[in-house]
Amino acid sequence: MIQALNSANSVSGAVRLPGDKSISHRYALLGAIAEGTSVIDHFAASRDCHSTLECLRTLGVDVREAGETVTIRGRGLRGLHVPGRVLDAGNSGTTIRLLSGILAGHPFESVITGDSSLSGRPMARIIQPLREMGAVLESRERGLPPLKIRGGVLRGMRYRLPVPSAQVKSCVLLAGLYADKPTAVEETIPTRDHTEIALKEFGGTLHVEGNWIEVDPEPVLKARHLAVPGDLSGAAFFLAAAAIVPESDLRIPGAGLNRRRRELLDYLLEAGLNLEIEKETEEAGEPRGDLRVRHSPALLERRLPAIRGSLAAALIDEIPVLAVLGAQAGGLEISDARELRVKETDRISALAANLRAMGAGVEEKPDGLVICGGRHLHGADIDTRGDHRIAMAFAVAALSARGETRIHDAECADVSFPGFWAALRNAIKR
Ligand code: S3P
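^ inputs. structure came back:
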């Protein structure tokens, strides 16, 4: 499907966010290994989170969906069934990496695979620690999926994360639930802590000391009734759109404001975004609040603050839209973001090619981009490479470009934000 977009005069009204993708995955997985029936409201409608639900069904879990509410009859810590077929994680790195941690604790063989994008993404980062804990894993060459996993009782260990990755951290912590003694993970660069928060909510025990996060094994996890906050990474596209389009005034209620994710808001405020955060509350350890964003001329006049070091890890999912914003503001330099090369697609290369197609000056580096600002972008054909965040980022670019922009394979936005195109068209005023 091609989405054709032109410049807009205003992005206004209200946007309803889908449930947070990261949190939905975790609630579903923990609900499946808890005792009792969990009810999850505002569960992400995203294709990725449905991959997690389908895998759980294949593992014998009774999962029911009614609108945005998902009900999961937990099977207890070791109650998953031998799967009758290959588990399909689709496009979802979170599904394959987190579920592998749980499968490593089950004494049967399972095979987990994904689509062509996921089949090219690195899994050595989870294979190595899970093997160290005693699970038996096989993969294709160079640690690529499919993964064959045979688990059992694992050995607790202390593990230093070689890459800043919430997925790897979460995989090891979940495997730690099945170990003979506590398992600890060290992260020198902080990443999203939804697994730690959710584990505590379901009754797990964690100890945090400095950079070390330790989980106790063999908890009795208890079912919960939880509501997922709105996906702040999805909100990022609308924040950027309102910032660049004149006369914009947009409300985004119920956005997740987890301390590790809201670094995006701190960054944008520092950059000059006209943003108000209202009605902050917290539920099940996850803060949330309403956002109001308006056209932000101050942000557009300047170079955006450089993204490097721990900020690159904190903003990893938002870099595509921030790169677009940088091209429309006074430029942006991104470093230490090599991880972008192994996301749903090589996002550094996809950003450079598509920004150039729209007339921006871009230099590609191994670990980032140097984006020149101050050039008026023009419409172009955007090759999304099937990557949801590339598609949505260039939808934002289209709103202030001269002429028509055609976004190819635009349906890939469903991976994290079903309804994105309708929500955008609804907010655009011409
Ligand atoms: C996620 C962690 C991040 C992020 C992804 C979701 C998670 O990946 O990019 O969209 O839910 O844990 P990495 O852990 O590979 O950095």
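The radius of gyration is 21 Å. The chain has a mean pLDDT of 98.
thumbs up if we can close this ticket
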